[in-house]
Amino acid sequence: MQHELSEGQRLVRELGRTWAEFESRLVKVPIIARALRGAIRLEDYRLLLHDHYQQVIDGACWISRAASSIGRDHLELRSQFLRHAGTEHRDYRMLEQDYRRVGGDVQQLRLGQKNIGASALSAWMMQRASRPDPLDLLGAMFMIEGLGKHFAGMFAGALQQHLELQDDQVSFYLYHAEHDEDHLQQLHELFDSGLLQEPGLASRIAHTARVTGRLYLLQLEELGSY
User: Fold this and answer.
1) Residue 49 has pLDDT above 80, yes or no
2) Across 124-223, where does the E strand assignment appear?
3) Is position 1 within any domain?
4) CATH at 80
5) Are the C-beta atoms of residues 154 and 186 closer than 8 Å to each other?
6) 197 part of a folded domain
7) In this structure, is residue 31 part of a structural domain?
8) What domain range is 87 assigned to?
9) Mean pLDDT of all residues in 154-183
C-alpha cells in the first residue's frame, strides 16, 4: 500500500518538474547554446559576466529585505535568510575577478546597468521580498541554487574547454558548482520540516519558482539590451 505523499514531498516533485522545464529552455538560450557547442567567443563571455554582475549585486539586497520582512513566527528562517545573504554578498567579487582576468575593465563593470531581463528579475525579487513573511522566496532560492548544483560546473567546463580559460577566470561558476549542493539540501530539509503546514504556502513557493525561472531566462535572452 502506497503512503500518501507529504506536502513537502509534493512540493519537491512540483519543483523538480519546474526545474526540468527551466533547464530544457536554458540550454536553448543563445549564449548558453553557443557555449555548450563550442561557438562562444571571449567577448560573449565578457558580456555575460557584465550583465550577470548587475543582477548579482542586487541578490544580497533582496535576500536581506526578505529577512527583514519575516516576522517573529519564523525567526529561524529569518536567520537562514541572513546567513544566505552574507554568502551571496561575496559573489560580486568573484565576478569582478573573472571579468578582469578575461580582459574586462572592472570600472566599466561597476558603472554598468541591468539589462531588460535583469531589471525585471530584480524588481520581481524586491517586490516579493517586501511583502510580509515572504517565505515563497524559498522557491526562488530553489531555482537559483539549482543552477549552481546542476548547471554551473558543466557550463564552466564548456567555457574552459572552448575558450582555454583557467580556474581563476571562471571562479564564480566553479564556486557555485561546489557549494550550492549544500544550500539546496538545506532547502529540501526545510520543505520536510513542517513549514508547509501554513495554508497555501506550498503553491506560493511553486509559483514563485516558476516566475523566477522565467525571468532568469529573460535575463540571459536580453544580454546587451539596456
Assistant:
1) yes
2) none
3) no
4) 1.20.910.10
5) no
6) yes
7) yes
8) 7-221
9) 92
Per the structure, the count of domains in the chain is: 1
Query: What letter represents residue 105's amino acid?
Result: D
pLDDT digits (tens, 9 = 90+) for 79-111: 878 877 766 667 899 999 999 999 999 999 999
Cell numbers at residue 35, please? 557555449
Residue 2 has pLDDT above 80, yes or no: no
d(CA 100, CA 46): 9
Q: How far apart are the C-alpha atoms of 146 and 176, rounded to whole Å? A: 10
Is position 100 within any domain? yes
Q: Which three cell numbers stand for residue 163?
A: 575558450
Q: Is 112 helix (H, G, I), strand (E, B) or coil?
A: coil
CB 138 within 8 A of CB 126: no
pLDDT reported for residue 112: 95
Task: Provide the 10 A C-beta neighbour count for residue 70.
Answer: 22
H helices of 4-136, in order, are 7-26, 30-37, 42-69, 75-88, 91-101, 106-110, 116-129
Grid cell listed for 128: 516579493
The identity of residue 97, as a single letter, is Q
- Is the whole model's pTM more than 0.85, yes or no? yes
